[in-house]
What we know:
The protein has helices at 4-9, 25-28, 34-39, 54-61, 110-122, 151-173; strands at 29-32, 40-50, 65-66, 71-75, 78-82, 85-86, 104-107, 126-135, 138-148. With 174 residues, the protein is an alpha+beta fold. It has one domain (24-149): Small Protein B, Chain: A (Beta Barrel), CATH 2.40.280.10. The longest helix is centred in the last third of the chain and has 23 residues, at 151-173. It is globular.
Amino acid sequence: MAPASLKRCGLFKYTTAVNKPQNDKTSALIAQNRRARHDYFIEDRYEAGLALQGWEVKSMRAGRAQLTEGYVYLRNGEAFLFGAHFAPLNSASTHVLADPARTRKLLMNRSELDRLIGYVEREGYTLVPLELYWKNGRAKLRVGLAKGKKQHDKRASEKDRDWERHKGRVLRGR
C-alpha cells in the first residue's frame, strides 16, 4: 500500500492489466453484412446505438445476430432497423415473448438524422446496416449511406477483385 502523501500528490498510481478488455476489432465484432458491400457502393458510414431488449443483448453476446436481410428506413424523423434477425436463446425468459425479427429503433443525433433524411429523400441514396459490434460495453450498428450497384458494376467489382487476387499470387510466386 502506498503512503497517503504519494496518493495525494499524484505520484503513485494504481495500474492493473489483469482485467483490461482487449481492444481487438475481431473480438468486438458481432455480425457483418458482407452482402451490402457486394450490392451497394458505400459512400459514407455512420455509427448508431440500438434500443434493445434484454434477451437481444444476450443473444448478441452469444453471437446469434444476422444483418444480411436487414435494412434501415427513416420514418417521422427517426431511424429503424428492419429485417435483422436476432435468434433468441433457449434459456430466454418465459414471460417475455421473443420476436427475432422485430423492428428496432436506432439512436442517432438529430443533425445526422436530418442529413440522412435529405440524402435518402432527395438524392436517392439508401441506408444499409454494415456491421454490429460492441463499443464500451454497448451494442453499436455501423450504417452505410449507399447507392445501388447495377449488374455490370457488380461484374466489374468482381473482375477487379479477381485481378488483385491473381496479382498477389504472381508477386508471391517470384
